[in-house]
Design goal:
By secondary structure, the protein is mainly beta. The chain is built from one helix and 16 strands. It has one domain (about 25-210).
Amino acid sequence: MNRTVAAFLGALLVGAVCFGQDSSAPAPVGHGVFPVKVTKTLDSSKLKEGDAVELETAGSFQLKDGTLVPKGSKLEGHVAAAKSRAKGDPDSELTLAFEKLNVQGGKQFAVKGTVQAVFPPADEDQGPNMATAGTSMGGSGAGAGSAGVGITQAKSGSNMESSSKPQGAMDSNSTGVQGIHDLSLENGVLSSKGKQVKLGNGVRMMVRADILG
């Protein structure tokens, strides 16, 4: 009987230690939507699952813990899926997942992010696009009101080969694809009726993300 009790207490102790380890997981320091832009063409006919991708923040915003994320910080992720009719696939699709935010100055955050909206490159002569990120976590950023990720001066430059179309104003409530023909976005999956999904230099995105400490 004593051995049975000892074994039971030992199992409880192990469980308590494991629970304590789980509770030490990083706490979110921001939750919301922020703008990024493509700095190297993303082409589903040339990419494969697992390939690393890097985008650049297109505006400055502040996290709940007070960290300022300046424009030009790097958002890293990977290709979750890439399909292309040019390679014989039945569809042309591209899915991106983001895991790391490298803030200028050396600070780094883990993130869980997906693409919420896509826009054509911005015309620099049109000035900054202002946007505010909504969130359920509170906190505030400069000029953003109540938001875990407050976006200010979300200005996106462009050298892309396109686009003479009117530039859509980037907004945290925007979803889907704005102002780009033959491209759609649903549940984070970009799809095209063409031979591939191709996002050229300067294409802008709104990324929805949990930013962890």
